[in-house]
Amino acid sequence: SGLSQEAGSVEQLSLHCAEGSLEWLYPTGALRLRLAPRLPPTSAAVKGGSPPHVTACIKPSGTFRGAQLYLERDGVLELLLPEAPRPRARCFSWLPQEKVALFLQATPQPDISRRIAAFRYELRGDWLARPALPAASAEGACRPCNDTEILMAICTSDFVIRGSIRSVSNDAELQESIIGVSATRIHRQKFPLFQAGGRAGRAAGSIR
């Protein structure tokens, strides 16, 4: 909580977990988050190949307010998440010998109303990505996703499954489409959206 910090102060923290979340209530001053994940050695590192990249994806909460998030690399700050309605998820990568950090800085506010700067992060090794990618590039273009965009979708989505669409219906009252999905494999899901009980023991669920 920023209530225990003084204006203009910078609190130092280290993120050692490969994934997690941070919630900063009443942002005041700044937080410097050193990225030091304990990742297993990659095949490239074991065989003496080229140094692998470490990739991070940051997904802000829908109520991200009161601060801005920067990427600090070699003493230079690059804005990742502005204080704006519905900020987009961002991904970036670095080499293990590089020193990088996240700099979460409180923004001046006219009152003391409740604000929360919260986001979820995931760190992975041996994945290539260009620095500080926006959540969507070349908007409007219809093309296959590249490796970086697929990585970002995996890191920031509420669920990742392999399966097939079995039905599509329309809810006229709610004015939304309902997609019935049969999942053959669930890689991850934030909420129990897909549950076993379908045909041949497959998990099934609906997406709105």
Automatic annotation (TrEMBL):
Does the keyword DNA repair feature in the UniProt annotation?
A: no
Asked whether the UniProt record includes Disulfide bond among its keywords, one would answer yes
Q: Which UniProt keywords apply?
A: Disulfide bond, Secreted, Signal
Which is a GO BP term held by this UniProt record? positive regulation of axonogenesis
**GO cellular component terms given for this protein:** extracellular space
A GO molecular function held by the record = hormone activity
- Where is it localised? Secreted
Known InterPro entries for this protein? Meteorin-like
PANTHER family assigned to the protein according to its UniProt record, in alphabetical order: METEORIN, METEORIN-LIKE PROTEIN
As for family, the record states: Belongs to the meteorin family.
Kindly provide the name given to this protein in its UniProt entry: METRN protein
Which species is listed as the source?
A: Aegithalos caudatus
Organism placement in taxonomy:
Eukaryota, Metazoa, Chordata, Craniata, Vertebrata
